[in-house]
């Protein structure tokens, strides 16, 4: 392991040669492991290579786990005031350096800079929320009889292995890191190789905030690295955000060597229902938020937009008009609303869904075209697409697209809308647009989803649990509920009298 002498300067992040620092952050240092396993760090907006980094090998993973295990003991013994201080300071630094962090998020992910800034500010809220969570880590006192009682304690779980998704790099890292640290755990975070940069910045911020070295670590890796990490005997907990097939492999790998709890935040095939009494303009806004934000690369997106036939014509006309007005371009420009896809491979995958749907009988009424952005000719741009004439046998109806492809599906009755919305094994999200409060309650109860949105979509808050049911996974991110996933419960029985002899 080579420790890099250059320390990241938070005050000159945008100007610094950040990508030359290192691939990893271990034990409070930017480090480079000697490895022949390399990968390119790409810039989606231009298609150019930013750097060449290295995956961690099995032996290097062992070293990082050892570092995290040793550091966790010290952190677990810290007072709640110390944890509060570190997490609060982290929130302050994230806010102070928001623009520069967003710059790197945009550069390595391709999303518009306005969205990247919003993501960083959401991380500020998350660290602030978990800095004051100590009062929710309390146990219970249970009287049993005059001479016997029991009490419970919530204890840190140990070393947490967290594997993040490429679509929300800094936010996914924060959602896993903040509660894990608040509960007294150490964490080893493996970002996606497609967006690996900003987790390293968070490591520097946590160190500057006073987090002991080794409590937060970042390693770069592929599936081989991840498998060794999650199967390590000293890793006590795994949290994963990503695709359903990968999630199933991780669950199997975790059970293969030593049983450990896992949190799975997986994909979805969600629906948004626009009822006949809806404000059509609000329905259009919800549909666009549910499909075109972050180039449609959002796990909870509602590609199936179900529209009551009585408002179908007005809704479709307004949706197409608003979609054509979207500004597609350089993600670093403030006016850009649609940026670049994460990779050329992923753009081609989304195009494959569009072309496949057309071959199966769907009609393209808007978008789905490659866009040439001046000066960024090799960037991965694709205009948001709207398809009609969708049938249940089509691949786009059944599978998660993970791109800006919106399917308009007409319906007549509530029962039909609910049936179509629930016609999937996944259950991450669902939404409805209506002015009828009673209807909103009634339909929300019938939708099989972990998150339901009424007159909004993809709303998120660190105060509210987020997660899915069915094939979309289990466990939760955010809220007080997540504390159950980063702690273990100990029950203690106490007898103040003489131990009874049953013999």
In short:
By secondary structure, the chain is of the alpha/beta class. It contains 14 helices and 23 strands.
Task: Describe the SSE topology.
Blueprint: E1 2-3, E2 24-26, E3 29-32, E4 38-43, E5 48-54, H1 58-76, H2 80-96, H3 98-109, H4 113-131, E6 141-145, E7 148-156, E8 159-163, H5 169-182, E9 186-190, H6 198-208, E10 216-218, H7 223-230, E11 237-241, H8 244-257, E12 262-265, E13 271-274, H9 280-289, E14 304-308, H10 312-324, H11 344-359, E15 363-366, E16 385-388, H12 395-398, E17 405-411, H13 414-421, E18 426-427, E19 429-433, H14 437-446, E20 451-454, E21 469-470, E22 473-474, E23 487-495
Parallel strand pairs: 8-9, 8-11, 9-10, 11-12, 13-14, 13-19, 14-17, 16-17, 19-20
Antiparallel strand pairs: 1-3, 2-3, 4-5, 6-7, 7-23, 12-22, 15-16, 18-21
Helix pairs in contact: 1-7, 2-4, 2-6, 3-4, 4-5, 9-10
What does this structure look like?
By secondary structure, this protein is of the alpha/beta class. The chain has two domains: 24-43 and 51-136 and 159-266, Aldehyde Dehydrogenase, Chain A, domain 1 (3-Layer(aba) Sandwich), CATH 3.40.605.10; 271-454, Aldehyde Dehydrogenase, Chain A, domain 2 (3-Layer(aba) Sandwich). It is 35% helix and 21% strand. The chain contains 14 helices and 23 strands. The strands form six sheets. Strands 15-16-17-14-13-19-20 form a seven-stranded mixed beta sheet, sandwiched between helices. Helix 12 links the parallel strand 16 (385-388) and strand 17. Helix 2 packs antiparallel against helix 4. The longest helix has 19 residues, at 58-76. It is globular. The termini are far apart. The model has no long low-confidence stretch (mean pLDDT 96).
